[in-house]
Design goal:
There is one protein chain. By secondary structure, the chain is α/β, with parallel strands linked by helices. It has two domains: 2-58 and 371-413, Urease, subunit C, domain 1, CATH 2.30.40; 59-361, Metal-dependent hydrolases (TIM Barrel). Helix content is 34%, strand content 22%. It contains 16 helices and 16 strands. The chain has helices at 34-38, 81-93, 97-113, 131-134, 155-168, 188-201, 213-221, 225-232, 245-251, 271-277, 286-291, 299-304, 331-341, 347-353, 356-361, 391-396, and strands spanning 2-8, 16-24, 27-33, 47-49, 53-57, 59-64, 116-123, 139-146, 175-180, 205-209, 259-263, 281-284, 308-311, 379-383, 404-407, 410-413. Strands 1, 2, 3, 4, 5, 14, 15 and 16 form an eight-stranded mixed β-sheet that branches. It starts with a strand and ends with a strand. The model has no long low-confidence stretch (mean pLDDT 95).
């Protein structure tokens, strides 16, 4: 089919006034100006005029916790990050399989209507897979969470069990991989073993790192609220006092092009350069960042070091409730928050963080996150009748539901007739 739109935002190229794309099976065969694309059309191809919309690649949510969607508004902002860990642990204690499944599916539906076509999700209940995959059209990367401090289990045992689950899963659109939760919640051996396994299998791996001042103080100074709390819980804190959390990951041989490092809010001198040198991808979650009142995100320092910066929603357990309206998982909301925090950041760069940069982090550069010949047919349309020079800004500031969504060449949300 041929999809025609008022404005085409390929992301990999400048916006096009009066654009169109040709979809052949599950791929983009051509993308460009309508007059040019017409000449590439073949007999029998259906043309759908989407009207006054901006047509762009589907958004790539590089970090999410779908499991916690139904915790929206239940956890008010805490005094410290360590307090929040205690609060969510209590909240989770009363949940069962059906609670997590319902929460996951509700979150997936929010993302779909909010323009996301691919999500990197942290999965704490592996038994949900693959059933929840089959219940959504989204392209899902499920990173299976591993901890082990409270369970007192050996790192090798934790990893073997997780790898067995990963190996049992097969799906044409979704895949699973590893997520040692964070340096403070896992032992160095689990980080090392997981990193080595991911390298051997050429898989992506993700972890939360340097998320809070509590974590930074724990590893940098071998002290503070988190250090004391975990010591009381019998964590072996011998790995603390040796440098920043980023330096800790480096010692555990986790830093590399296959690592998606989430948050990275607290940096020691040299950390940004190290992340850039190792080609690590970093995911920023602006609304979660604001919820915890973290120090300003060091976007420019990381960008200057050559770090690939992406956007994620995190979970609704870490987003402030405003008024009576429950918050929703929305990458558009994250783009708006980022733009408000850094008004000098170009809208086109914000959009790249929510599309092409996330694709690169997931190892799908040139496959998703842009509209070019040969890319997968993952795309969304939002209402837009303005000037082409305003298109990127309109996408960044958009709120509401998308007008249409296509994933793998199939309509996930069909355009209005």
């Amino acid at each position: 089919m041929i999809l025609r739109a008022r404005t085409l935002l390929p992301v990999a190229h400048p916006p096009i006034d009066g654009g169109a794309v040709i979809i052949a099976r599950n791929r983009v065969r051509a993308a460009g100006a309508w007059t040019e694309v017409q000449t590439r059309a073949r007999r029998g191809e259906q043309t759908i005029d989407l009207g006054d919309v901006a047509l762009l690649p589907g958004l790539v949510n590089a970090h999410c916790h779908l499991d916690y969607t139904d915790m929206a508004g239940q956890l008010p902002p805490p005094r410290s990050f360590t307090d929040w860990i205690a609060h969510i642990t209590v909240a989770k204690s009363g949940w069962g399989y059906s609670d997590y499944a319902r929460s996951w599916l509700r979150g997936a539906q929010m993302l779909l209507h909010g323009g996301v076509t691919t999500v990197a999700d942290i999965e704490v209940i592996p038994d949900l897979l693959p059933e929840v995959w089959n219940a959504t059209p989204l392209r899902v990367f499920s990173f299976l969470e591993m901890t082990g401090i409270r369970a007192r289990r050996q790192p090798g045992e934790i990893l073997r069990e997780t790898v067995e689950k990963v190996d049992s899963l097969s799906h044409p659109r979704c895949r699973a991989s590893l997520s040692p939760h964070a340096p403070y919640s896992t032992l160095p051996e689990l980080l090392r073993l997981s990193a080595a396994m991911a390298r051997r299998r050429r898989r992506r791996i993700t972890t939360h790192v340097a998320e809070s001042q509590d974590e930074f103080e724990m590893f940098r100074n071998a002290g503070g609220r988190m250090f004391d709390w975990l010591k009381r819980n019998e964590r072996d804190n011998a790995d603390c006092g040796l440098g920043s959390p980023v330096a800790h990951l480096d010692r555990c041989r986790m830093l590399g092009e296959n690592l998606i490092a989430v948050h990275v809010n607290c940096l020691a001198p040299g950390d940004a350069a190290l992340l850039g040198q190792k080609r690590v991808h970093v995911v920023h979650c602006p609304r979660s960042h604001e919820y915890f009142r973290h120090p300003p995100f060091l976007l420019r320092r990381l960008a200057r070091a050559g770090v690939n910066l992406c956007l994620g929603t995190d979970s609704l357990a870490t987003i402030r409730k405003t008024g009576r309206q429950e918050p929703e998982l929305s990458l558009f909301a994250e783009m708006r928050a980022l733009a408000a925090n850094d008004p000098h950041l170009a809208p086109a760069e914000v959009l790249r963080m929510a599309t092409a940069n996330g694709a690169r982090a997931l190892g799908l550069a040139g496959q998703i996150g842009e509209l070019s010949p040969g890319t997968l047919a993952d795309l969304v349309a939002i209402p837009f009748a303005g000037n082409i020079s305003e298109a990127a800004e309109a996408v960044v500031q958009f709120s509401g539901r998308v007008a249409a969504s296509m994933i793998d060449g199939q309509w996930a949300i069909a355009p209005a007739a």
